[in-house]
Each structure stands twice: as structure tokens, then as C-alpha cells.
Amino acid sequence: MSSVRNHDVVVIGGGIMGCSAAYFLARDGLDVALVERAVQVGTEASGRNAGGIRQNARHPAEVPLAMASVKWWEFFRDELRGAFHYEQHGNLSLACTEEEVRGLQQTAVRLRSIGLDVRHVQGADLKELCPNLSEMVLAANYCPTDGQSNPILATRFIARCARDLGATIYLDTPVVGLAMHGGQVTAVETAHGVIGTDAVVNTAGPWANEIAVMIGSRLPILARPTQVAVTLPMPPVLRQFISGNTVYIRPTRTGNLLVGGGGPWDVLGFTRENTYSSIRRFAARGMQILPALSGTSMLRAWAGILAVSPDRVTIVDRMPGVENMVVATGCSGHGFCLGPGAGQTLAEMVQGRAPSTDIEGLRLSRFPPGLDINAVYKTEPEPM
Amino acid sequence: MAAGRVLDHPLLGPLPDVPAVTFRFNGQPVQAREGETIAAALWAAGIKTFRYTGPGKEPRGVYCGIGHCYDCRVTVDGVPDVRSCLEPVRADIQVQGAWERQGPSADKVNGG
Amino acid sequence: MKVDVAIVGAGPAGLAAAAAAAEHGLDTIIVDEGFEPGGRLLSQVHEISEPRRAAHVWNGPRVAAELVAAAKNAGAQFCLRSTVWGLFPGWRIVLHGPGAAEIEADRLVVATGAMQLPVALPGWTLPGVMTVGAAQSMINHHRVLPGRRAVVIGIDLLALTVAQQLASVGVEVAGVVMPAPGPLAGAPADLGRVVDELLRLAAWAPAAGLRLAGRVLQGSAASHLVARLFPPDGVGVWDIAVMPRRAALEIRGNGSVESVILADLTPAGELDMRTAREVEVDLVCTSGGLAPLTELPEIAGCRISYVDEWGASVPLHGPALETTAEGVFVAGSVTGVEGAPIAALQGRLAGYAVARAAGRMPRGEYDAELQRVQKELTDIRRHAIPLWPNIDAGRAAIAGLWQEARRGARV
User: Fold this and answer.
1) Closest C-alpha to A162, from A31, A2, A40, A4
2) For the whole model, what pTM was predicted?
């Protein structure tokens, strides 16, 4: 980058949220710059997650955004011919205790009332959907339009689409400061030069608070790693993305299974280490719900860093304390699906339009003023 | 079993006599030498394809020979993903090669 | 199970480290995924001819047996058929194998060696395509013929050694050729680099023509001019046709290797497709270079450094073979590939360093042994055929990086 440039909008952070925002802004005809600190987009949570694209098994406040996102995912795959392995075989959220069964039944009612096609299934219906679950699984909520993708390919595809529409992507370009004047951000200072701009989109994931601090503001998020493991290829024993018993499992096109499941036992911070306790838990808890897992080996494991919010629900809002910055972060491990919907919403907000998707439950105002997430976040022991 | 063996090594000399061991590969009997690996026994018997992979049913077998690449993996007495280049032969073991296909889109989900 | 030191890898470095540590009273266990200890020594049986020394046979299995005996006699325990899949702080070693699932150790020596880099070309997954290391293991360790007629792809010392071994057991070697040039081909397809390598080896090569060329042209920057000296049909080295001007494009066969497509390279290293033809073979051995197996040091938290001089990454280590992870030492080819005798000496050094760190080896004795071993290392480096070029420059680079890392830590 030459030392001073100008763009209409700067998007900070090239994960799925940022790449999507860049796409929708470029689609609306704005001159948008995406700045990414790493040498490629989608290198943190967006490239390390298990690839689930699901509306099921999330807080009702996120469901409208998830449903809007799935429509966009289908658009990227079908209209724009994105080859990122997006398949919709369904998502099953499992109950292994009577209490969990009751919880699922209530959740199904609540989500159906928002308009999501989700069904509570038990017995023979569940067996037909997913023949290889163990007896430990008593019931499930099933969403047939849910699915999975390769998140690395998906993030890069959307970035390419944004570039094709005129977005400029600056890689290997960390943001080091934000210049303000009269309550507005006027420029983004990067390691390679300054970008003058009229608006900023903060989609820096776990670094979003660092960005907020640059304008004297704060975001209630914490960085927390989560781990995933992958098995050697297996014969097809699972069609859907399933979660329950503290883990999730999903099949890939090549027959490997991904097994993961983070939580408040994962130690906070910007590290990407695998722990013995989680690897063992994935194996033990995974085999409890899908006994066929015992027929394969784990090939390797990795971790990625999430941004967790105080209530583990995503944040999409205008940044407080400044007129021309919007933010999406705090997805707490279930943000990947929400990328396109959030990107569209961010683009609308940047241009002063009311969001076409209901994000009222995702606003920062739901938190009490002056909330210190460090005080309210509680680490819990890892279930074994 | 003479075919495929180095009977007289120019530096190590003649192949020493060791007891024969028989096992089965995909149901067929294979004669091996005690103390050798499954991969060596199969290769000496003229068997180069240990398994198949992908919808194209591509044949695979020994590649690195020392346990790094996992291309030589077989199922031994029901235990999957055993590296045949590291596993010693034992009498009467049942060794099978799998055909690993794709995930749920390419095939019906089997009863596990 | 709790021990003072766990050693991962029972090759020459690991075995020597086990003996050195156990000799000083440490509770020592050595872990290997093979069912026989010895690592690559078990496959190494070849003639060595070095300048000013009589030709002799290197019998790797015999060397391995001696090292194993020394380790056992010193009291080291062996845990074989066990794959280390995790190293967690503590140190907690987790294993997959018939024995213990976990070992707790105060210190670790990681001696995991190096792997062969692949040479990828169409048809490379067919049965009958294998690394030169696999062929070497088949012939020398398992006494199995890998094929009847072979082509070797990749020209370096290991490729030439294995080609010669193939020929010595009756395999017809059609030639040792280059990989085809292309964006993924990397260093092995760099004709200039290969020619430099051949000239470097010329001092040891029992091929008069190569030695003469080497003396005349050593140090000359004219690798491409030198390349013109090589006719497409190659030069004989140990009675093997070495063809830096011929490349393999594709491997063909129905179910297994049946032929390979070769074409000539111009002196500038470009393919001349008019010369492409199909050669019948049932075996293709590839030599793409050796790369240290750094996964275990990496997951233990050791910093891994790229050494430009070698074109490879190794765990960053200091003069006592200590890494940036507390209590973790490295030895052998994982620190840079120099062959078994050097690996064994490094293993001893690492064993001594562990003993010293555990307070079981007095300062005076450690310093004396360190000096002795370093002298032996210098002697061997002077006269042995180096597997990698630029060994001294690379070791100096690592020493520099280590100093930088130490300075950084103090800040």
C-alpha cells in the first residue's frame, strides 16, 4: 500500500464476517477496503471451525440472522457457483437425559414460533434419520435445512466475490491505530500506511476489543481457544452434523469425521494449544453417542481462538462512542453460519439503512452499562 | 517362497532360515517369514495393492515404507488403520484392505 | 509410569542418548513405534568409500545391535510398537501401543529423525511407486525385491546409493533421472542445484569422469555450462546411468506401475517434448530430499526455525542440544541430517546434557565429555560424505538464531 489511500469504508478483519461485509458493501457500489493482519483471509476462527452452517441449537436471538444467512449461503453456492463443499444434510441437537429432552421440546416450540423448520424427533423417527446413534441418545431437535461446508474455502470464496465486485483486500496488514475527528473515525492506520475513510466495520473477532480501545471504547468480549480433532476416513456412518454430550461430530466429504466441543473450561487467551483432557473427552463423549467412532483413529487436532461474549450470544450493533463504526463479534463459537447475514446487516447499517434482519437481541444495549466481562465470565471445570 | 525375495544379499549373505508363518489377506492365505512386517510379506508374495480409496477406487500400498505416510494401512483382526510396514506378522491373523469412499453425499449411510 | 527422562525415537541418536543418560543413573525409557529398535540403521547396509580410507561396509543393523546393547546394559527400558501422539506439559507423554498409555518424565529427548519429501507427478500413487528409503528398507531390512526394472526420480546421494543397491540385488535400473520442472517441483528439479550437488560429491564418487569434472569446475559459478557436459543418456556413477538431462513426466500402469514417460531436458533445464517416450518399468523410486520430523517438538512448544542454508526447518537448539521448551532436548537428524555416526554422537551429547541438568553428571566430567564428543564430530565431518550440503553454515546459522532467541528472552 502506498502510504495514504482513501476508501469509502474500511472493514477490519478478514474472517467470514469481514469478508461478507466487504462483499455486500461492494455489491452496493461502495469502494471498500478489507484489511487483514494475516497473510490470508480466514486464518483464525473462520478457518479453524468445524464448518457447521446451522440455524439449530442456538439462542433464539440469533435465529433470524441464521435463517437469513442460510438463504445467502445457498445463493453463494447455487447462483455464484461457490465450490466450498456446502451440503445440507441436516443438524441434530441431541438430548441424553430426560431434562435435556424437556429442554429440547421447549426449544423446538420457541424456534418454530420464529419460523424455523425444526422438529423434535424420538424413537423410530430418530433411528431412521440417524441409524448409528447410541441408546444414550433419547431425542433430538432436527433442522433439515442445516448443513456443513469447508470453512476455509467458503471464506476465501466470499472474499474473492468481494474482490470481483471491486473490493480491495490488504493482506498482512495489521491495524495499529484509528484517527478520529469530531466523533467520527477519519482514518485507519495500518502497519503499511494510512487509509482515509468515511466508515469502519469492526469484524476483528477476538481482536475486536483492541480495535475498540483505539477509539477509547470497549467491547465485552474475551479471547478463548476451542479445539477440534479429525479422524482417519471411515465408511459412512453419519450424515448430519450432530451435537450433544458436550461434543459435536460431523462427517466430511472424504469420510473423515470432525469431533470438537469447547466450553467455559477452555483457558482464556490467545493460544492455540490442544489439551489432553479435551482430546480424551472428544474420544470418550463422542463414542458414547456414536459408538462407530471406536472404529477409527484421530489423525490430528488443532485449535482456534473465539471471541466470547458475556451471554455467549453474538453481538451486531453500531459501536458506541463513535458515529461511523459498526461491529460484529462475540460469536462465542457459533458465528460461522451467521457471516453472510451479518455482512448484509453491517453493510445496511454503514449506509444508514435499517437492518432487514431482526438483530434486536444482538445489540450491545442488552448488557448493563459498565459491564466488565472479566468479572462476570466464569471458567468451569471440564466435564469428563 | 522364492519369488520376490532377496535370496543372496551381496553384503549380508544368504537369506537365513526362519520359521514360516501363514496369515490371511482378504481371505487368501499368504506365506510369510517369522519376524517380518505384513507389508514385506505381502510384497514378497507379489501383492502390491493393499487397499483402495476414493470413488475412483484407486489402488494404494507401500509408499514410504517406514510408518510416516499411512498409505499402507490395513485392518488386522478387526483393528483398522494398522500400518502394515510396521506391524509384524503373526500366525493366522486376518488382514483386510478397505475401500475408503467418501462421506454422506457419495453413499448411503451404513448401519454401523 | 514415571521416569527421569523419556527418549522418543530408537534410532542411533535416541539409543545413544538412552545409554548416556542411563549410565549416569537416570531412570530412562526409550519409545519407538517400530517393533525393533534401530530406526533407519536397520535399512542401511552399503559400501562406503571415502578419500584416503579403504572401502568398508557400513552394517547398520550391527551398529544398531551394539547401541541397543549399550542402552540395555546401562539400564534403559524399551517401549516398542508405541507411537507418541501427544506431549503435554509435565511432561506427559501419551502413547498408542500395547503397553503403557501414559508416561510421565521430567525431561525429554526428541530424536524423531527425518522423512523423505515426496516427488509428485501424475501416477505417483500407483503401487510400485515408493521412496528410495522404502526400497532401501525392503532390500536391506526385509530382504524383499521391490521390483525387476526401476527408474529412480531425483538425483542426490541417497538416490545414487539406493540405485546402486537396487542394481546389486539384480534390479535393472534404467536410470536416475530428474523430476520434471514445474511450479510444485521445488529444489529436486533445479538442474543447477543438482549439478552443484554432483560436483560436491565428486570428491568421493568412485567415478573418474565425475572426479575430474569436479576438480576442474568446483567453485565455478557455471552450473549451467557444466550441465552441457552431461549428455542426455547420462554419465556412469557406480555403474548407474545418472541423467541430469532427462526428466520423468508421468507414471503409468493399470493397478500398479507399468511404465514411466521420460523426456530430455535442454541444458537450460526445459523439457524437450519431442524426445518424450515411454519406458517399461515396474518400480519407481523417488528421492525428494530429507526433512526433519519436527511435529513432536512443535507440539511440545519448541520453537521451530527455518535454516536458509539447508532449505529446511529444525527445532531451534543450543550447544547442549537444549530447545526453547523447558526440559526438552533434541538429537540426530531432527536437528539437521548428517547421517548415523553424527546422530549417535549428538545422542550422547543430549544424554549428557540431561544427566547434567538432573544433577547426575559433575561439571568437570560433562565438560571433558563435551570436548571429546565435539572433537569426534569435527573429525567425522571432515571426512564423511555429507548428506546435506552447507552443514557448517547451517549449524552456524542455528547457533546465531539461538543466541538471538536467548537475548530476546532476557528482554
Assistant:
1) A31
2) 0.90
